[in-house]
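Anyone? Bumping this.
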Amino acid sequence: MGLLAPLYIAGLLAISLPILFHLIRRTPHGRQEFGSLMFLSPSPPRLTRRSRLSNILLLLLRAAAFALLAFAFARPFLQRNEDMSLSRAAGKRVAILVDASASMRRGDLWQQAVRHATQAARDAAPADEVALYFFDRRVRPAMTFSEWNELEPSRRVPVLEGRLAEAGPTWESTNVGDALATVADLLSEATGTQGGEPRDGSRPTNNADKTGRQLVLVSDLQQGGRVESLQGYQWPPNVLLDVKRVAPKEGANAGVQAVRDATGAAPDVGAATRLRVRVANQPDSKREQFELVWATNRGPVAGAQPFKAYVPPGRSQVVRVPYPAAGERADRLVLRGDDHDFDNTLYVVPPRSDTVRVIYVGDDGADDTKGLRYYLESALGGASQRKVDVVARKSAEPLAETDLLGARLIVVGAPLAEDRVATLRRFAETGGDVLWVLKEAAASPALGQAIGVGPLAIEEATGRDFALLARVELGHPLFAPFADTRFSDFTRIHFWKHRRLKLPADAKDVNVVAAFDNGDPFLLERPIGQGRLLVATSGWNPADSQLALSTKFVPLIEGLVRPRGTGVVETQHAVGDAVALPPAATGEGARSVTTPDGRQVQLPAAATSFDGTTVPGIYRLGLKSGEVPVAVNVSADEGRTAPLAIEELERLGARLGNNPTSDELVTKERKLKLIELESRQKLWRWLIVAVLGLLVVETLVAGRLARRDLSTRDVQQ
Amino acid sequence: MGLFRTKLKPQQGAAAPAPTPRTAASFIDPATLMRIKSLQLRARIVVQGFLSGLHRSPHHGFSVEFSEYRQYTPGDDPRYLDWKLYARSDRYHIKRFEDETNLRCHLVVDLSRSMGYGSQGYTKADYARTAAATLGYFLSTQRDAVGLVTFDQAISDYLPARYRPGHLHRLMVCLERAVAGTSTDPAAALEQVAMTVRKRGMVVLISDLLVKTEALRSRLGYLRSQGHEVVLLRVLDPAELEFSFDKPAMFVDLESGRDLYVDPALTREQYKRNFEKHAAELQQICRDLGVDLYPLVTSKPMELALFNLLQSRLRAGRAMSRVRPGARGGKG
């Protein structure tokens, strides 16, 4: 016999109540009539040494009723062995997801993670299936369920431990949300035993609905882990998440990152003499004083003065750090005073310094705000990336060969004589760029000669108050910086005047790079030899347009003086980001990338990006136009190491919990069978009936005894 | 016994009779007396025994005839000469007429259920009836008018004070009534007497007085203010005085039927304190109002009740003679 609720047997203690009652309740031996009770007060019952149980039969009946009632509440049942046949407990599937991002490099976090993962594998029952995954911004399987099943049971855990030993944290950022969603989907997709037929040859059963699915997340669960990507994900109902958090024993993190400007583009290092960096201090930090010092791969630059930064916990501060002297070749800024140094090095592409010669042909003076030259020199003079030497020549002056030596660009801002065209064409043929700005309709026939089409019909465009650029070839290298939709809106620039240029039908190789909304071309390009001729039908002087006053003027002019083939290369990247490559120059073959550890990676000519940024450092792109350095740093989010509450995962839809072990499942099933058995037998009903019967008998006996007492007293009286 | 000592006052002009061993031994045992079924017979036996006992008393000068002798002086009415005394003393003396006192006495008898208790083999009610019958018989022999009021929670019977043939018999019949009622209210009975009896007289309340004392105070005071002589004969059973029970029992109130589990060993002291406190209050009320309070313990002889009444009767008669001008035999 068994009991479903054995605790109710404690109700047998209630039997002491009637016993106590029979001892305490001293039934008065008689009844005494008295004249008045006005001077009497009731006496409390008391036990004496001579107390003895009275009415043993009544006591036994009442005690028996209590006992049967307690027994009934305990839900007894008669157990037979054949009733307890249990189905073989199915194993569960366990996916161990280990965080291998850069933040796991702190202290002994990785070792803790390895221990947790190993323990999770060891805790698996023989019938369980285990898989191992690593993740940072992507999920990488280290051991799949099929691999686990194919191994001998005795080798499973050692092999998994070996995979853990071979792995280590990367430098990439964390994406916990995507990782959880990916692995949860993998877990919930399983049907029956993975890998096909069961080993024992029995008929495969569809245990998918009954198999427990457990996802074990081993991570530092940092606030910068991008867990919010779980939002909107429908967590599988049969997958439970168990979080094994690792944390450093002490210390908190501070990090340094480069500051991008408001447009999101990389900072124009040529436009300032100091580097803007942000020092961020985590909320759980106990430090406030930090230092920034320029360094190379050999260590801090000798004699370099550290720059102090005071940042309270939970705050960040932007610091302007002067670039080191030109001869120091420092390529990194190191943060000191932090407990964890994995994100303390900011690799910086040093500013380039080259001299560019630009020749302006025109009659307006350098300070003539109504002309083109004033704005051209202003745009070229602000960048510290390169030194621009503007040589001005009057339109009537001849261009000497020495003028053209080293020149990158010739800007023509006035009508030219035809005998100048040959010089311009020679310049373009050798790789130079010529920008002919039509300030007036009365351009010289020289333009047609320069283009190579003969006389051109040029007239002043008429119509509305202003024209807008409606079509811009954003794939052209000149407009590539504006390819992002945030920067591709040219409609804010009004063109008050422009010239309508009608090309003859036989004009060849003339591309319209940009056109107005009325269809008239704004910028035409004619390749000449290794260079090109660009014709602008409107100037940037205030009388013609607002171009010089717009934010797009400087990048346009910058694009004109940039050596062709270099394009705009983003110089600041995070580890794991793909580095976009500029379009290959004409005749450029395969390109290469030199990684920070000195390894050289060859890229095909058609490659548009390089995605091998696995470690932070300076990568050098080998382009035809020259070597372009690119800085790759640890993601700023990875520096946000303050712990995230586990409840946040639950709030985003994850189901936290642990699937029961096989033993627990067996116990649960056994208990369910016992409940079912007891519900069939319902012995408690018969016990209640017995209790009621006892109470009826007790009532009859008590009444009979009371009547007997009364008659005895009457006789005595 | 504290407050319950026998109240004997030496009377002016008369020596107070001290109970002599011979006198005490001649009192009738109450248990034996109660075996006599006829109430009138009981009363007569008690009276006759009392009178014979008093006549054997060595103390002279005390006359139950309530008479007073003085030497004859010229001018006195010769009809009041005591010829028997002349035959004995050869002197002429004038005797106060017994009928001159002519007391009106109302016996107010408690016949509630609380009087139905008794531990001596007879109840307090039996004792009270006998005491009342005895007093009534005695007063009748003295040619005093006797009235009767029996009560429980209300007045049951009322007989005005009369001295006529058959009145005593009717009184006995009323006394024979069984105890009844669910409570005791002597105040109602006393108020009835106060409202109906206009002439001064004596009111004898025979009860156990197991009621709240404040109600008694007002009614007794009312009677006293009307000039009545009030006597309280408190009938109590010895068990009520000593609470001489030894076993716990369910004590049942005879009047209300309420029962209470009482362990005498635990409550005896408290009971006696409460009882004596109540008795002290009664004593104080009687002292304040000039009421005579005499305990009648049912284990004591009945004659004591009679003796106490005589004391009161003497005082009442003397007071009345002082008040009435030209009283016969009085000093004038």
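Late reply, but here is one note on the structure posted above: Chain A touches chain B through 20 residues (CB under 8 Å).
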